[in-house]
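Appendix C: a fully annotated inverse folding record. The material below is reproduced so that readers can follow the format used throughout the book. The structure is listed first as tokens, followed by the designed sequence.
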């Protein structure tokens, strides 16, 4: 990253500063950045490092251009984030900038804890259309700026398996032959498998409050039956959450897991060249439906004029195609949201696997919109999936329970 920073300092100041209308001497002061951490698992050093890695790199490069600026960061769990911001804002200590999930950015704006944005058409044209669509509040206004995408992938130990199984059938077959497969009962970790088993449309319909067709009910039951049967395979290990899967692969207790691209830096540091990364398996009923997590910069409502200038300049800097290219190529654990990142920057096998995952995410993007992270229905679904996986509920009984649990709250 140091070489990349030096390159940026030589090539970018004129374009960036003209875009912001500021010189390095003009911009000064302290801005406060709040970062949300997804999931309910205990916070470990590894998790914290994953969440702040890209933010730290952006801030460090930004401060080389603007040495009179300070960015103070705080981390909060996603489930507590809204209330924490509300409490701090009431005390006059609200953040100027927030790096959060896309669904959280929308909630912040709807709760008057962040301001919606109207961005120039030229800036809008630079950004990934799907990311913009997920953030649109009304035509022309956004809940925040999409900064990076974290696709869901298959991660595996190449000393145990040469390539990731291409289908769900092959995955279970290889588990019978000794491949130690990890699955988490956390619904967001499992949504990728709804497409291959034909349950994705059922979940979308139920979450939208629409009656399910007979084929959709059958698909939902088939998915639950697959999860139940997987648990009877001695080489399939059912874990409580995504972090348990990551730890299993790190400690070499597991050979294959669904992972998030944000996990890759930590896995790579431990497994080295033995880490394999691929798109997730398809199935007899369709391609995988992986979740792409969108990370967004949302703007606080209580900033002073100086803090607002710093926050907006930092956001513009983070969207620059060269910054995004550097983040993608240096860490290989995210995809940019700026469409003008040179294609040559995304040519590695890992980044190609991420791009394929994003292309497969249409159905799961719909699920993400209807069941955002932290939605009580999402937690209830995880509980029902756990009950099926451990034999407390039959797939048939759980099918009706899932439909009821996913129904929108009136």
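Designed amino acids, in order:
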């Amino acid at each position: 990253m140091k070489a990349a920073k030096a390159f940026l300092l030589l090539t970018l100041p004129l374009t960036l500063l003209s875009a912001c209308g500021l010189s390095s001497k003009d911009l000064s002061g302290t801005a406060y950045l709040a970062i949300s951490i997804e999931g309910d698992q205990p916070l470990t050093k590894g998790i914290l490092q994953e969440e702040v890695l890209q933010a730290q790199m952006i801030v460090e490069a930004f401060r080389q251009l603007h040495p009179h600026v300070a960015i103070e960061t705080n981390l909060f769990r996603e489930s507590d984030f809204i209330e924490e911001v509300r409490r701090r804002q009431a005390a006059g200590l609200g953040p100027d900038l927030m790096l959060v999930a896309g669904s959280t950015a929308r909630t912040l704006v709807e709760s008057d804890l962040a301001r919606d944005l109207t961005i120039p058409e030229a800036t809008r044209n630079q950004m990934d259309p799907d990311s913009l669509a997920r953030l649109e509040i009304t035509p022309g206004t956004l809940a925040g700026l999409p900064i990076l995408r974290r696709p869901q992938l298959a991660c595996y130990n190449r000393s145990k398996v040469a390539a990731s199984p291409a289908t769900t059938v092959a995955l279970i077959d290889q588990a019978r032959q000794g491949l130690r497969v990890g699955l988490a009962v956390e619904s967001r970790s499992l949504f990728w498998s709804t497409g291959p088993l034909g349950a994705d449309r059922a979940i979308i319909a139920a979450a939208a409050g629409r009656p399910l067709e007979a084929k959709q009910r059958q698909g939902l039951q088939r998915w639950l039956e697959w999860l139940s049967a997987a648990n009877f395979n001695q080489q399939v290990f059912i874990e409580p959450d995504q972090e348990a899967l990551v730890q299993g692969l790190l400690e070499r207790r597991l050979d294959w897991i669904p992972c998030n691209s944000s996990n890759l830096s930590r896995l790579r540091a431990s497994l080295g060249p033995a880490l394999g990364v691929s798109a997730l398996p398809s199935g007899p009923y369709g391609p995988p439906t992986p979740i792409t997590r969108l990370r967004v910069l949302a703007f606080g409502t209580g900033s002073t004029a100086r803090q607002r200038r710093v926050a907006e300049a930092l956001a513009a800097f983070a969207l620059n195609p060269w910054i995004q290219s550097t983040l993608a190529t240096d860490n290989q654990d995210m995809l940019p949201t700026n469409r003008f990142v040179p294609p040559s920057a995304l040519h590695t096998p890992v980044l190609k696997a991420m791009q394929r995952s994003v292309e497969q995410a249409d159905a799961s993007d719909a699920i993400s919109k209807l069941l955002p992270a932290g939605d009580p229905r999402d937690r209830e679904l995880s509980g029902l999936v756990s009950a099926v996986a451990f034999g407390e509920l039959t797939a048939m009984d759980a099918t009706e329970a899932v439909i009821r649990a996913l129904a929108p709250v009136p």
